[in-house]
Amino acid sequence: MEFLRRLYRGKSIEPSISQRHQQMDVESTELHTIWQELSQLLSDRRDMLRCVDLCKRALVILPKESNEALWAALQNELGNSLAQNPLGNRATNLEQAIHHYQLALEVRTREAFPVDWAATQNNLAVAYSVRIAGSGSDNLEQAIHHYQLALKVKTREAFPVDWAMTQNNLANAYRNRITGSRSDNLEQAIPHSHLALAVYTREADPERWATTQNNLAVAYRNRIAGSRSDNLEQAIHHSQLALEVRTREAFPVDWAGTQNNLANAYSDRIAGSRSDNLEQAIHHTQLALEVYTREADPERWATTQNNLANAYKDRIVGSPSDNLEQAIHHYQLALEVKTREAFPIEHRGTLKNFVSLYFGQKHWEKAHQVGLDAIMVGADILDVASSDAGRSDAIAQTGELYIWVAYSALRLGQYGDALAWLEAGKARLLAEALSLGDANLVLLNNEDRQLLQSLRDQVQDLEYEFRLPPSHPIRRGDHTISADLREARATLRDLTARLQVQYPGFLPEGLPLADLLAQIPADGALVAPLFTSQGSAVFVVPAGVGAITADHIVWMDDFRLDDLNGLTREKEGKPGWLRYYIDYLIVVLDKTKSKAEKHAAFKPLLDGIENVTRRLWEPFVGLIHAKLQALGINRVLLMPQGDTSFVPIHAAWHEEGGQRRYFMDDYAVRYTQSMFALDNAKRQSNQGKGALVVGVSQYGSKGDLPNTRAEAQSIATLFGVEPLLDAAASVAAVKHGAPSKAYVHLSCHGGFGWGGDVFTSALSLANEEPLPLPEIMAKLDLKAGPLVVLSACETGIVDFNNVPNEFLGLPAGFMQAGARAVISSLWSVDDRSTALLMERMYKHILNKDNPMKPADALREAQFWLRDATAREIGDYYQAYLLPRMSQSEAGQAFVEILKRAKPDDKPYSHPFYWAAFTYTGD
Length: 922
Fold this sequence. Notes:
The chain is of the alpha/beta class. Mean pLDDT is 84; it is low at 1-13, 18-26 and 386-390. The chain has a six-stranded mixed sheet with strand order 11-10-12-16-17-18, sandwiched between helices. A five-stranded mixed sheet has the order 3-2-1-6-9, with helices on both faces. A three-stranded antiparallel sheet has the order 13-14-15. The protein contains 37 helices and 18 strands. Strand 7 (653-656) and strand 8 form a beta hairpin.
């Protein structure tokens, strides 16, 4: 009962029958007897099982129509009693509680009973916030919704304590929220906690005041928006305030929890001396261990041992060897409790810390061996993870291990193993990315799909509970949760193993080395970079080799992961590609900005592309170039890693003989997410015939694209088919027309899911109807194996902030749907130059005298667009656009070209116009 008192303390669940006792029409002796006993029980919330029984008996005697208000009050109280009932199945009790609250609301409307309506809305919110059944994400959304409804009546002026309680509950819900941006959710949580503190003062309610201060400290430590340094200072400040009330004598467990929070904040702290901060972290962790003993609280003890090990790993004061020994010692203590069987997630986390320690010390053999152990544990977790959040978190923690293991193997001279582990990590990451949203379930028949989903649903509730903070009211002890998980995981693990055998594309483990090498094009080489914090390397492997040797490795000891991130993001105040591009988008997507302001934002974007593609050459691409030159190879299969997935490596350049020379001038470049993905693409059917050509030029809010209609008409003419234009280009029409085609060309608006959810990436078709990524993966039939050309903006961008989403984007989605290859764009492209590029590419593909493979045709079209003069482009417009556009549209397009260029100038020479498009797949 103690945890229930903690959960509903302060009227989180609000009694109601006692307030209505005068309304009771005692028409029977039995009802009067029930009421007397129930009133006594509810006065101190004793014996919830008896309360449940009494409420049910009263509801049998009292029909709804005889006294609706009292009937609703009994339904509400039955919900309260079930929610607080410590006996029976917790999940079932909460489902029944929710049901009875909903029945109460049939009578308790806002209009008729506003205060009671708000009370039941709050009760319903609390029940959803701790609900076990269903989706954890959906439950929290429901909780937030009902808390917000309660606040419509429970205002600060009328009900200050209830208002503060609900504000605090909302803060907790937003802090734990899964849906939406993590940053945005924390920004919601923080102000709700501050609002609660307007009522929860130290003088009036010190315990709730301290709890809210502690919650604020956690939120600020995790906060993404704002200054990281300032956020950590706030976290320390609020923890210290909490400790003014949370003393060891009065609240020992809460005191230890806040000491642990304070240690974490000091460990991350940016302000002040790094050395002093780590000493503070060690000090506060050791204080927490005075309460978190192995005997009394083994789970928290082990977690705190792990945190102490992290602090010693980074410690500056003292002997480095002694600190290293201390770190190893405390990690080992943590593992004594956090075993692989009982706590696989925490076990894998501690092993990962071990690998990080060894990797940082360049102890390659230990890093390699412990990394392999951690990967094996990670595989167990991934196989049974059921929710999107659980899978994303699991792979995010495992993904880096593959990189460390591969690089450690390289340093140990195990070159073939290194490439195999790099590929295994990519294949697994891609498979896990595609499994989000259950898109990979389309591989399974209905019976297997339903069975898998049913078992995942069973595990999901337990996984969600396990991820909750130890202080969360519904969270049971780790041992209890683990026991329930073991049985469920074993069943699901057996099923997953069977499905992997039955469906080879389901959660693959990557290709064996021999099969991997067989995927390298006969006249080319595989180029696969490997970036780490301790240095980097690139595999450059020509076709036909039987084993990987030192000759196939290009070492980049002085170019580390943070150097790459400096090129792609930002370093020491110097912007990388994303900074340039996002700054541009902020302006052009702002409807309050003038046309002149948007035009002015274009020049910095062009400068940014040139800057980044030039900076890619010397430390990275130039070394690959030298190796390829020595091998005499001019075709490249590029398997990017991390941030190299969203920069145009093919457009990296240097000066040669006073002229700019791009990487793609010397090499035909194809991309692949992994060698398994390439192998899978090759296995797709190539039986498709003809083409589906789509062009949408008419939009409302997004702005028209006049060149897309002409583009689609011209390309459709080359294929001898009728295009789907504007209103005819609906999502349903595309789904209907795509099967059996050899080519699918989609010219329209497109966009990446910048809101933090990659699954909102979509193409915008007729009437701005979206064709989003999940629908592409699960409902688009491309089994004929077409080439899909995404002649739209941002169709090649991946989620660069989240693993495994770094592999997930529209290209992967279309290949999941069956495409053999995808042409897509890395930024928001110009529709006029894109129309010319695409029409030129198809002419090369369909040239009867000299047909080109699509990848080569794209490259040749890019060369043509880059090098064409204004005069040549003008002539092309006359032949290409004028017959398919109005005179005014064609004339305006032609004028736009000529007014900024002399006849012999090359108006589309900048890589912005031609380098955005990449070819991914077979």
